[in-house]
Write a structure and sequence with these properties.
Strand content: 25-35%
Order of helices and strands: HHEEHEEE
Distance between the termini: 84 Å
Structural class: alpha+beta
Radius of gyration: 25 Å
Strand order of the largest sheet: 2-1-3-4-5
Length: about 100
């Protein structure tokens, strides 16, 4: 009887291990708080300099500040901006109803 050697499964195991390691690095490379971080935003009707403060709300995505202010407060009628102090820039950052960033 002639025995046919079985193929080694080591390449498949090695490939699976590399894939698992790559996924682990990719997932842990993103800080856990980055997705769940909430930002308190002040909503202003019109220009921030006019001082037309309407109220506060909380967002998890900064670009949503303006649209959420406009959908939350009826008085906005599409003219509100959502603002917060960006700690990285140490400046007031606002977003309008279209999600456009305005640095003050």
């Amino acid at each position: 009887m002639t025995r046919v050697p079985r193929k080694s499964r080591h390449p498949a195991i090695l490939a699976a291990a590399v894939l698992l390691a790559s996924l682990t690095v990719a997932i842990t490379g993103i800080p856990a708080h980055a997705q769940d971080e909430s930002i308190t935003v002040s909503c202003f009707k019109g220009n921030l300099g006019e001082g037309n403060y309407i109220g506060n709300l909380t967002v998890t995505v900064p670009e949503n500040a303006g649209p959420l202010c406009n959908s939350t407060y009826y008085d906005c009628q599409g003219k509100c901006i959502g603002c917060f102090t960006d700690p990285k820039l140490d400046k007031q950052v606002c977003y309008d109803n279209t999600g456009t960033k305005i640095v003050k």
